[in-house]
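[[Sequence with C-alpha cells]]
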Amino acid sequence: MSEFMLRKDQRLKFLIPVKYLKDGRSHEGIMTDLSLTGGAIAGDAPVSVGMTFTLHVYLPEEPTRLVIERVMVKWIKRSVFGVVFQTLPKRVKERFTIILALKLEALHSSSPR
C-alpha cells in the first residue's frame, strides 16, 4: 500500500449526514465536501455568513456522532454553505484524517496510470 500526503486544506467529495444546532434547534444537512479545516454543507435551514454553531457529523463506520463545537459559516450559495472548523477535537481530526486518506487512496488507485 502506498502512503499519501494529505494537504491540510485538501477538500474531497463526500455525502456525510450532519446536524447543526441553530437558535436552539437542530437542523439536518449533508456535508458534500470535507477537509481538515472545513467543508460544504447542503442544509435545510438558512444560515448567515459569520454565524457559528455546533456541528454533529455522522460517519457510517463511526458508532457515535462526532461533535465539532465551533463551526463558522464562510460563504453561502443557495442552500449550500461553506464552513470553517474553528476548533477540531483530536478524535475528530484523527477520524477525518483517516477517511480523507482512504478517499484519496481510492481516487489514486482508480485513476488511469
Remarks:
- Residues 12-110 form a domain with the Thrombin, subunit H fold (CATH 2.40.10.220).
- The mean pLDDT is 85.
- The chain has one domain: 12-110.
- Residues 90-110 form the longest helix (21 residues).
